[in-house]
Write a structure and sequence with these properties.
Layout (H helix, E strand, L loop, with lengths): L1 E3 L1 E3 L2 E3 L6 E6 L4 E7 L3 H20 L2 H17 L1 H12 L3 H18 L2 H4 L3 E7 L2 E9 L2 E5 L7 H12 L3 E5 L6 H12 L7 E3 L4 H9 L3 E7 L2 H13 L3 E5 L4 E5 L5 H13 L9 E6 L2 H16 L20 H17 L2 E4 L18 E4 L6 H4 L6 E4 L5 H10 L2 E2 L1 E5 L3 H10 L4 E4 L15 E2 L2 E3 L5 H7 L1 E9 L17
Parallel strand pairs: 1-5, 8-9, 8-11, 9-10, 11-12, 13-14, 13-19, 14-17, 16-17, 19-20
Antiparallel strand pairs: 2-3, 4-5, 6-7, 7-23, 12-22, 15-16, 18-21
Helix pairs in contact: 2-4, 2-7, 3-4, 4-6, 10-11
The protein binds nicotinamide-adenine-dinucleotide.
Nicotinamide-adenine-dinucleotide binds next to helix 8.
């Protein structure tokens, strides 16, 4: 059995805790590797190593640090097929989607090549008599990222690229379900010229996370995962004085106005609802058609498209629409929620629970499901299902439709499909959700903008990547300077003002 350890100080390191977790091939249901779960002592050693390497890296000028990112981008492109294959093998998503996962991270690395510009401070000449004032953004020291299973390439890169380009040393604790790609990324960073010890990948579960949260050297924690863990990480990290930004789960609504192009809206819902088997924090899981005739037309268009979805292993070719769920537990949980929806009185229009594929009977596959007549009191409406299940909640008018995502506890993404500019503008302005699409079902901002949800989808300050990524992993120091020729005689007892 293949054993996956850690990557510390620029080298592969075996786990010594004696604890391991199984890593599955979700398409076959087989255990394909075992990943080491770090103990507190192993995490402490990795942090000490990072702390020793960080000052020299911070002292390396930002243009040289940026060149490492430049080379890293080249290497990601060189190894794209290899990375995508490793990613699909452990996660289950299709190869084109796995490449998208790598490329969305690569784009953040590209953005970080601009670190010298992004880290430039501010300068005020003559802020007072003979006084100049300047501010600079300095790295925090050793910082950490804790990431989920569903984007094992993109989300680690959202975290470590800005942190490292800004001069920090980084401890990455990726998901234990698909740990291979994060280690491959760390190997590529070393090949790109990153000094050993600046990027460390420590695999593990709750013990490793708690060791990060309680450690006194680590200055900041960026987390992405489910909401209960995001909230836990945020409270414990901030209680020990760290900077924290923790992004959680979602329930993304797409409103379909009566004037929308129904074919476009249905296609958008199919891709956004079922792509990656619905295991995306920006997946659309609730469709809100406005008016009964819009709802009927939408259901009529969606039903045959869902029944025709191509489901299969990543090895079955690029025209597969989506693959298996990540684990047997995830599959059982999603099927259980579908059962719950039926019990609650929602109408299951398409039932994909019995999907099975010859030769892959033990894989974690299920077909697409479609619920109609879902109401806001149902568990399937309140809960993030994180599977290939779309719920239709019918709204009588725009105000009722708008109120659904506004009142939901999650606030990650949302979309509206309409041809009416006034309605779209009103929606974008009033909605209390972090990322909004207008005729765009999955409005994931590009690398030079920032990504972040509101309400229970995000805890803490600042978003991920873009300029916020640099702000989160740096702090501002402001210097006020006056040279001897500007000094006046005598002590000053009252606070200087510009009066
Ligand atoms: P998860 O919360 O189970 O795990 C996330 C991380 O937390 C992993 O590294 C895991 O090892 C660790 N962890 C798990 N249980 C823990 C515990 N009890 N104590 C401490 N650490 C623990 O999430 P997941 O299943 O890997 O990912 C799916 C979730 O992530 C979904 O809810 C999805 O919406 C969310 N997500 C959010 C975003 C976003 O930007 N808002 C992006 C991607 C995924």
């Amino acid at each position: 059995m293949q054993k996956i350890g850690h990557f510390i100080g620029g080298k592969h390191v075996d786990g010594t805790s004696g604890r391991f977790a199984d890593v599955y091939n979700p398409a076959t249901g087989e255990v394909q590797a075992q990943v080491a779960l770090a103990s507190q002592q192993e995490m402490d050693a990795a942090i000490a190593n990072a702390a020793a390497a960080q000052p020299a890296w911070a002292a390396t000028n930002p243009q040289r640090r940026a060149r490492v990112m430049m080379k890293f981008v080249d290497l990601l492109n060189r190894d794209m097929d290899k990375l995508a294959e490793a990613l699909s093998r452990e996660h289950g998503k299709t190869l084109p989607d796995a490449k998208g996962d790598v490329i969305r991270g690569l784009e953040v690395a590209e953005f970080c090549i601009g670190a010298p510009h992004l880290l430039k401070g501010e300068f005020s000449e003559g802020a007072g008599p003979g006084i100049d004032m300047y501010s600079m953004r300095q790295p925090l020291g050793v910082v950490a990222g804790i990431t989920p299973f569903n984007f094992p390439a993109m989300i680690p890169m959202w975290k470590f690229c800005p942190a490292i380009a800004a001069g920090n040393a980084f401890i990455l604790k990726p998901s234990e379900r698909d740990p291979s790609v994060p280690i491959m990324l760390a190997e590529l960073m070393i090949e790109a010229g990153l000094p050993a010890g600046i990027l460390n990948v420590v695999n593990g579960d709750k013990s490793a996370v708690d060791a990060i949260l309680d450690d006194e050297t680590i200055q900041a924690v960026g987390f992405v995962g489910s909401t209960p863990i995001a909230q836990y990480v945020y409270s414990r990290a901030t209680a020990s004085g760290k900077r924290a930004q923790c992004f959680g789960g979602a329930k993304n609504h797409m409103i379909i106005m009566p004037d929308a192009d129904m074919d476009q809206a249905a296609d958008a819902l199919i891709g956004a609802g079922y792509g990656a088997a619905g295991e995306r924090c920006m997946a659309v899981s609730v469709a809100v058609p406005v008016g009964e005739s819009t709802a009927d037309a939408l259901i009529e268009k969606l039903t045959p498209k869902i029944e025709a979805l191509k489901i299969g292993p990543y090895t079955a070719g690029n025209d597969v629409d989506f693959g298996p769920l990540v684990t047997r537990e995830a599959l059982a949980r999603v099927k259980g929620l579908v059962e719950q929806g039926i019990k609650e009185g929602a109408k299951l229009v398409v039932d994909g629970r019995d999907f099975s594929m010859q030769g892959y009977e033990d894989g974690f596959f299920m077909g697409g499901c479609l619920f109609d007549n879902v109401t806001r009191d149902m568990d399937i409406y309140k809960t993030e299902i994180f599977g290939p299940v779309l719920s239709v909640v019918r709204a009588k008018d725009y105000e009722e439709a708008l109120d659904l995502p506004m009142s939901h506890e999650y606030g990650n993404g949302t979309a509206i499909f309409t041809r009416d500019g006034d309605t779209a503008r009103d929606f974008a302005s009033r909605i209390n959700i972090g990322m909004v699409g207008i005729n765009v079902p999955i409005p994931v901002p590009l690398a030079y903008h920032t990504f972040g949800g509101w309400k229970k989808s995000g805890f803490g300050d600042l978003n991920q990547h873009g300029s916020d990524g640099f702000k989160f992993y740096t702090r501002t120091k402001t210097v006020t300077s006056r040279w001897p020729s500007g000094l006046k005689d005598g002590a000053e007892f009252s606070i200087p003002t510009m009066k």
